[in-house]
Structures are given as C-alpha cells and as structure tokens.
C-alpha cells in the first residue's frame, strides 16, 4: 500500500486530512491489531452473554456480566499494550514539585 498524499483524506477513517491526522506517526503493528481485536471480542461477547442470560439472571445480572466483560477487555488492551512513554515535557512524569 502506498502512502497517501498530504492533502488526501486519512486512511484511518477520521475524516480529516492525512497531514493533520496520521502523517509522521508509526503504523500500528500486527500485535496491536490482534490485541484490539481480542479486547473488542471479549467486550462484545460479554454484552451478548448478558443479553442472552437476561432471562436467568434478570437485568442486574446481565448488566454485571456486560460491565465485567467490558472492563476485562479494556484491561487487556491497556496492560498488554501500554501507551508509549515520552521523553519531552508533555507527560505527568515531568511535573516539577518545587524540588
């Protein structure tokens, strides 16, 4: 796949120009794509299981199953693929507390 031009729409689907969205950023790796798919599958599966078990557990049980699954999918996504650390002053690790 060729890289789009600066003024074309971004291929990520955001609707903005490529130069304002993804230009200069690294493309997501296959590992990141697999983890996102796994996390989304767990979240969606828990919602489907919650709706399927609504008759047996009532709406409270169905809601609990759905919420726990969504939280588990989010935790997998965050803990297995943390955001990259930055060396500049934009992160909270560079706060000067007057020392």
How would you describe the overall organization of this protein?
This protein is an all-alpha fold. It has a domain of 55 residues. Helix content is 51%, strand content 0%.
Weakly predicted, low-confidence segments: none
- Gyration radius (Cα, Å) is 20 Å
Helix and strand element order: HH
By secondary-structure content and strand pairing, the structural class works out as: mainly alpha
Average pLDDT taken over every residue: 77
* End-to-end gap: 51 Å
Shape designation: elongated
Helix content: 40-55%
The major pleated sheet works out as: none
SS strand fraction: under 5%
Topology record:
Elements: H1 30-52, H2 54-80
TL;DR of this structure?
The protein has helices at residues 30-52, 54-80.
Quickly list its features.
about 100 residues; mainly alpha; elongated
């Amino acid at each position: 796949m060729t890289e789009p031009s600066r003024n074309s729409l971004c291929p990520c689907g955001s609707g903005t120009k490529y130069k304002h969205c993804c230009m200069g950023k690294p493309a997501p790796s296959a590992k990141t794509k697999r983890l996102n798919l796994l996390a989304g599958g767990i979240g969606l599966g828990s919602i489907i299981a919650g709706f399927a078990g609504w008759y047996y557990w009532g709406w409270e049980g169905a809601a609990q199953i759905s919420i726990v699954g969504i939280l588990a999918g989010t935790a997998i996504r965050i803990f297995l693929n943390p955001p990259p650390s930055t060396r500049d002053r934009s992160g909270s690790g560079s706060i000067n507390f007057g020392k």
